[in-house]
Design brief:
Oligomer: single chain
Strand content: under 5%
Number of strands: 0
Distance between the termini: 18 Å
Length: 211
């Protein structure tokens, strides 16, 4: 796929999903970091329901560190993998206090040095909390971009590299949200809704299946 075709796809998706934005509710970079860590193998809806009260009671690293791991587990037990998530969040809070004066760092390398923070989570925080161009590849972005032909890889890191090479840097943040919304509402995992897809004429999967 050419860069011109990629831009056309993004233009169409912007018209299709003008409301596309981060699905997690947060007030600070720290809260987005916690919410993103909680969102692994869970839905934004579930995470937002949990964090609404959680962030009121514990808005920052200091307040989180007043909790034991067992107490935090009880706060987030509706979310999958809550045991490991509680452990990682508290370890992350300690690192923030010890190494970054309680502030969430704004570089990929520093974010990824925190316990429980991988590349996807770091990119989500960079792009949504700090507005630093980054393109996080979650399950929707990975599936949709490889299905329609924006990328051709079975690896997440290669998919990110291909996307950032093809898509203009100033559109990385919005592209992430557009691909997520398209994956949730139209280009679904089990049965993509090709009959209503606004970018079907540009999609490799669609063109292959109508031949």
């Amino acid at each position: 796929m050419t860069g011109e075709e990629a831009i056309k796809i993004l233009d169409i998706l912007e018209n299709t999903y003008p409301q596309a934005k981060c699905g997690l509710n947060f007030g600070t970079p720290f809260q987005l970091l916690v919410a993103t860590m909680l969102s692994a193998q869970s839905t934004d809806k579930t995470v937002n329901r949990i964090t609404e009260g959680l962030f009121e009671r514990y808005p920052d690293p200091d307040s989180f560190l007043r909790l034991t791991q067992e107490q935090l587990e009880q706060e987030i037990k509706e979310i999958g993998l809550y045991h490991n998530k509680a452990k990682n969040i508290l370890a992350m809070c300690r690192e923030l206090k010890e190494r970054f004066s309680g502030q969430v760092p704004s570089t990929l390398e520093e974010l990824m040095s925190l316990p429980g923070v991988g590349r996807k989570t770091a990119n989500v925080v960079l792009s949504n909390a700090f507005r630093i161009p980054a393109l996080a590849v979650d399950t929707h972005v990975f599936r949709v971009s490889n299905r329609i032909g924006l990328a051709h890889s079975r690896r997440v890191d290669e998919t990110e590299s291909q996307l950032t090479s093809l898509i203009p840097r100033e559109r990385w943040i919005k592209a992430h949200h557009l691909l997520i919304w398209h994956g949730r509402l139209t280009c679904t995992a089990r049965k993509p809704r090709c009959d209503i897809c606004s970018i079907a004429p540009y999609c490799e999967f669609y063109k292959k299946n109508i031949e």
